[in-house]
Write a structure and sequence with these properties.
Pfam family, one: Peptidase_C1
CATH topology of the largest domain: Cathepsin B, Chain A
GO molecular function: cysteine-type peptidase activity
Shape: globular
Keywords: Disulfide bond, Hydrolase, Protease, Signal, Thiol protease, Zymogen
Structural class: alpha+beta
Family: Belongs to the peptidase C1 family.
CATH superfamily of the largest domain: Cysteine proteinases
Order of helices and strands: HHEHEHHHEHEEEEEE
Mean pLDDT: 90
Helix content: 25-40%
Number of helices: 7
Number of domains: 2
Oligomer: single chain
Amino acid sequence: MKCALFFLFFAGVTADLEEWKNFKIRHGKAYTSSVEDRRRFSVFHENLKKILDHNERFNKGEVTYAMKVTKFTDMTEKEFKDFLKNSYGGGMRSSDYSQDAAHESTDDQPSSVNIKELPKTIDWRNQGAVTKVKDQGMCGSCWAFSAVGALEGQHYKSNGTLLDLSAQDLVDCADGTYGNMGCKGGLMSYAYDYVKDKGILTENEYPYKGHQESCKQKGNGFKIKSYINVTIKDENALTQAVATIGPISCCMDASCMSSYSHGIVDSTCGCDSDRYSMNHGVLVVGYGEEKGIEYWIVKNSWGADWGEKGYFRLKKDGQNTCGIATDSSYPLA
């Protein structure tokens, strides 16, 4: 019996080692020493067990989304949360949020409509208003990619052409007086202030580097007139904005999203909806329904190999799952 148990344990570790080898190749992982490699394997091994246990529950119908190995699987829960903490908002976690009045939108929201008059489903990808999924890397620039996605949608609607706009432009230039901190975090509304004043270049003109450099903006990019803050924590207002305006910049608590594979995430994943728990900027590009469950369609900036080809779905039930309606905004072209 002991022999059989040892064999099963050894076989499991061997399988994990093979998975580990493939993981490092697939994601280009290299560690500073053999000691660090072993430590990372230990973290990977524990995360892999959690993924397998969760997927057993998914296969039994106990949860509505599945998990998989991602580029974050060698990170501890704390390390992943620290990565997020330095992304959306960054060091602005508390005091600077109270200064949002200095960055308030200058235009009023459209009058609310009867929610029943809006489309049952919408997906702006199908209407040509969404560019391909990008990868922010380890730079805390989710806020820039979220803002860029909404800007791209409005450029498409106003000019009839879909352009990849430059997240690097925002990372390098929308700091200082605009309030963002490059790869250490920022807010989409602050990015809109910059684009209103200076404009934004295309990705071809100002390609993404994954780290902050000196600003190279020439002041001749696509400009906006203003921007709108969607009513805080109001999913009906967010629904109206997505249905009538286009892709919308949103924030969320993404603490439970490191290993997402597919399906519909709900609050049982362990996320929060409190404003000061928000740690990631994303782009809501539509909404739909599957097997009686309504969901948001959300574009992420962690690469096309993460989630559902770079996207994820989040339960849309009026309860502000993971804070998706907590702080939403969009530009006016």
